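I would love for you to help me understand the pair of lines that follows before we discuss the fold together.
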Amino acid sequence: MEYDQVKHLEFIQNIIKRMADNSLSMKKFCIAIFSAIMVLYLKEDNLCDISYSISYLLSFNVIMFMLLDTYYLYLEKLFRNLYDTVNKVECSNYCLKVQTNICEYIKQLFSISIVLFYGPMFLYVAWIKGIFLKGLVLFIFILIIKLWRKWQ
């Protein structure tokens, strides 16, 4: 079997597309489950009437989907780097291995797309339970770290 660089790049593009689709699915599922829990447990007359167990359930939902979404974004970035490498360098086989790095995963966890999507849900749950200031301080701390990294 002869090596075909175009076919290799197509393989990688398909993987990147699947990772992007999975990331979008995580966002859709998170919004759907978050909304369903809010609709089932909030009363029309009192929007702040929510128990601690429900707030923990909402927080758990957001955290789990945030971690999964971050994982898919992380893999997408790794495969985009592989695509660039295969496009520049002549390969002799259809290798699809990527080098994983926990520091890169953590960078993706605090990326703008993750923080701006999941952050407001955390703040909403914190506001409902009267712990808005703790959530606000955490959110501001994450934004400061993000800006500090850009200035370095």
Residues 5-151 form one domain.
